[in-house]
Write a structure and sequence with these properties.
The complex is a heterodimer of chains A (209) and B (316). Chain A is built from seven helices and five strands. Chain A is of the alpha+beta class and 209 residues long. The termini of chain A are far apart. Chain A is 36% helix and 13% strand. Chain A has helices spanning 7-25, 64-71, 116-119, 127-135, 144-159, 178-184, 195-206, and strands spanning 42-49, 52-59, 90-93, 96-99, 112-114. Chain A folds into three domains: 3-27; 41-119, Beta-grasp domain (Ubiquitin-like (UB roll)); 121-209, [2Fe-2S]-binding domain (DNA polymerase, domain 1, Orthogonal Bundle). Mean pLDDT of chain A is 87; it is low at 1-32. In chain A, strand 1 and strand 2 form a beta hairpin. In chain B, the strands form three sheets. Chain B has a five-stranded antiparallel β-sheet with strand order 4-5-8-6-7. The mean pLDDT of chain B is 98. Classes of the chains: A alpha+beta (209), B alpha+beta (316). Chains A and B meet through strand 4 and helix 5 of A and helix 2, helix 3, helix 5 and helix 6 of B. The structure holds flavin-adenine dinucleotide (FAD), iron/sulfur cluster (SF4) and FE2/S2 (inorganic) cluster (2 copies).
Chain lengths: 209, 316
């Protein structure tokens, strides 16, 4: 049998070729540590989402975002960047907003999670959802669930006296102002640039418009 | 992301011992840096040790009149703490200038200190990078280096440390408290914690394998006017090009530390003696041995002007 007709030949050739090109760029292996090739590990996690108890068997690598979207079919929460850079995945966990893409589901055992679906329903909108509709706080709508979850938490943060980058007097009380709202919403990017209407909606709910 | 196994640690000493047991194991706190890097397979830990349940989330007074900040205190809570806002305002300011509200709600004190560089070549696994893959070279040298270090760098690596919080910690002479896998504890002055890249840019701190941070302590308050001025490409939710942390006393003396210019928070105590002579004199001392690239030479001017702005603000 000559080499060319050997069914293994091409595959072996490809493998060698791949190794060589890795060596040339010098960056083929990303990590400094030895690579342990191990099988996925599945684990049970229990948490409450929008008031409902959930128990899931998940690959440990599953982020909270993928658990919500892919396992609970709560697709209101969006995946934009998957790296903490856009805010589309913002949900509220135990009263605090976080990026669901940068958190492992298994690390939320026992947590109380609120997504856009839990804030309100089409027939019973949360005031922030209603304000976004009223002020046209979106174009494509992709960033909107994250914007709304973030906005709800932002008003709570100001109420709780948590300071921000634009708080002038750190020892005084934190004021509810347009500047404070803008700075606190910087973790939510809107590619459509609906920012001015988003701010109008939040200011309306906050009562500073 | 590579597969990994997972455990919840029951105590700091157990966490440290577990980390030594599995080579390459990592602690996970807020996860906001580690998971980002794991998704890109820049970090590939075979085992994660969740350290969130250890009760290290408290801020307490120390006997010496300072503060002990638990390693797991969230950046939001540290910035909002009444004592920090009153006596260590530069730390609150630095924290609030970093990341976003969502990220600060998860990010922890220890995780923030240990966050890794934002060098774009470190993030691109197709590029040579001595920090990611020792011995492979440095793509930033001769590459796009606008955001890289201007001082303290080496021919192996010109990355910067991206943390804002760490700059304030350096200014305040914080100390890092740790426990090692053998159960021994030690205290590392922040000045000795982060390393310059030298020939081993992949070794970023003085922590030993498995060593676990339990707390960061601050000495008693030093008074003065506290300022953190950060210059970046957009007004919020961006890493620093240059940042200046300053505590200035009424007689014009004080302390200065800079972010965005080196592999670690950049503080030169001798430069602080020049404070009465103004920003130019201080800058000359801070950057006496600077080696900028053609693309980031502007940082030297920017640093001097940012320092001047900070000193002006301190005068009120
Ligand atoms: C989009 C984006 C923008 C950002 N902007 C900024 C910014 O402008 N300024 C800024 O300063 N930061 C910024 N950050 C970085 C952010 O501050 C860090 O990701 C965060 O502080 C890391 O903390 P963590 O608890 O999530 O760490 P983790 O991701 O959990 O851990 C980070 C590292 O620390 C180790 N570790 C954690 N705890 C311990 C411990 N107790 N002992 C020993 N090792 C430990 C882990 O093993 C890991 O190697 C940004 C991040 C993102 C994603
Ligand atoms: S500057 Fe450092 S982190 Fe960036 S490519 Fe060079 S070695 Fe890697
Ligand atoms: S998807 Fe989580 S921040 Fe972009
Ligand atoms: S409405 Fe389209 S991204 Fe914001």
């Amino acid at each position: 049998m000559d080499d060319a007709s050997d069914p293994d030949f091409n595959r072996r050739d490809v493998l060698v070729g791949t190794t060589a090109s890795f060596a040339l760029t010098g960056g083929g292996t990303a990590a400094a540590q030895p690579i342990a090739v191990s099988a996925p590990v599945v684990s049970k996690v229990a948490f409450r989402v929008n008031g409902k108890d959930q128990v899931l068997d998940l690959d440990l690598r599953t982020t909270l975002l993928d658990a919500l979207r892919e396992h609970l079919n709560l697709t209101g929460t969006k995946k934009g960047c998957d790296h903490g850079q856009c805010g589309a995945c913002t949900v509220i966990v135990d009263g605090r907003r976080i990026n669901a893409c940068l958190s492992l589901a298994v690390m939320h055992e026992g947590d109380e999670i609120t997504t856009i679906e839990g804030l309100g329903t089409p027939t019973d909108l949360h005031p922030m959802q209603a304000a976004f509709v009223k002020h046209d706080g979106y174009q494509c709508g992709y960033c909107t669930p994250g914007q709304i979850c973030s906005a709800v938490a932002v008003l709570d943060e100001i109420k709780a006296g948590i300071p921000s980058h634009v708080t002038r007097d750190l020892t005084g009380t934190v004021e509810l102002s347009p500047a404070e709202i803008r700075e606190r919403m910087s973790g939510n990017i809107c590619r459509c640039g609906a920012y001015s209407n988003i701010i109008d909606a939040i200011e309306d709910v906050a009562g500073v418009a | 992301m590579r597969a990994f196994t997972y455990q919840r640690a029951a105590s700091p000493a157990e966490a440290a011992a577990a980390a030594l047991k599995t080579p390459g194991a990592k602690f996970i706190a807020g996860g906001t840096n580690l998971l980002d890097l794991m998704k890109l397979e820049i970090e590939t830990p075979p085992h994660l040790i969740d350290v969130n349940g250890l009760g290290l989330d408290k801020i307490e007074p120390t006997k010496g009149g300072g503060l002990r900040i638990g390693a797991l205190v969230r950046n939001t809570d540290l910035a909002a703490d009444a004592k920090v806002r009153k006596d260590y305002a530069v730390l609150s300011r630095a924290l609030l200038a970093g990341a976003s509200g969502q990220l600060r709600n998860k990010a922890t004190t220890a995780g923030n200190l240990l966050q890794r560089t934002r060098c774009p070549y470190f993030y691109d696994t197709n590029q040579a990078c001595n920090k990611r893959l020792p011995g492979s070279g440095c793509s930033a040298i001769g590459g796009i280096s606008r955001q890289h270090a201007v001082v303290g760098a080496s021919t192996a690596c010109i990355a910067t440390h991206p943390s804002d919080m760490a700059v304030a910690m350096r200014l305040l002479d914080a100390k890092v408290e740790t426990v090692r896998p053998n159960g021994q504890t030690r205290v590392i002055p922040i000045a000795d914690f982060h390393r310059l890249p030298g020939t081993t840019p992949h070794i970023e701190t003085s922590l030993q394998p498995g060593e676990f941070i339990t707390a960061v302590t601050l000495p008693k308050p030093i008074g003065g006017t506290h300022i953190y001025t950060k210059v970046r490409d957009r007004a919020s939710y961006a890493f620093a090009l240059v940042s200046v942390a300053a505590v200035i006393q009424t007689d014009g003396t004080g302390r200065i530390a800079l972010g965005g210019v080196a592999h670690k928070p950049w503080r030169v105590e001798a430069a602080e003696k020049e404070l009465p002579r103004g920003a130019k004199a201080v800058s000359a001392k801070l950057f006496a041995n600077a080696v900028p690239t053609p693309e980031n030479r502007f940082k030297l001017t920017l640093a001097e002007r940012t320092l001047a702005a900070a000193l002006l603000e301190a005068k009120g």
